[in-house]
Amino acid sequence: MVGWLTLTTPALAEDYTKQFLVGADFSGRVLTDSSFTKANLREINLSRTDLRGVSFFGANLEGANLEGADLRNATLDTARLSRANLANANLEGAFAFNAKFDGAMIDGADFTGVDMRQDVLDALCDRATGQNTTTGRMTRDTLNCY
């Protein structure tokens, strides 16, 4: 007996470079390898979105909802994530060296292997709590908080 074979069309990478997307709703979408370089994404909804390999270089993500987002291997260098909701987001392997996380909610976020400045890491450790619901890792452990 031959079973049904389901083929899914891969999502094509989108280019949102320098776009003004304040308050837009991209929740639950697959946006792998897309570019939001230097885009204004203030208050955007990216909850439960597949953002693997996405470039947010220099993007304004102030107040963005990234709850449960998959940000593995994303580029967040010089991005502003002030007051962003990163609860249960997976940032494993992301590059966030000059990213700003002032006031960001990181409960349950997974920062495994994220490259960031020591002062930012120290500030995140001061408020790191929770366990990621997907990876099972404790936020403090993924930040190597001591």
Can you walk through the features of this model?
The protein is low in regular secondary structure. It has two helices and no strands.
Mean pLDDT, nearest integer?
93
- For the record, give the distance between the C-alpha atoms at the N and C termini, rounded to a whole number: 57 Å
Main β-sheet description: none
Radius of gyration: 15 Å
What percentage of amino acids are in beta strands?
A: under 5%
The total count of strands amounts to 0
Shape: globular
Helix content: under 10%
Report the total helices. Answer: 2
| Class from secondary-structure proportions | little secondary structure
Task: Give the key terms.
single chain, 146 residues, little secondary structure, globular, disordered N terminus
What is this entry, summarized?
With 146 residues, the chain is mostly loops. The chain is built from two helices and no strands.
SSE arrangement:
Layout: H1 118-127, H2 139-142
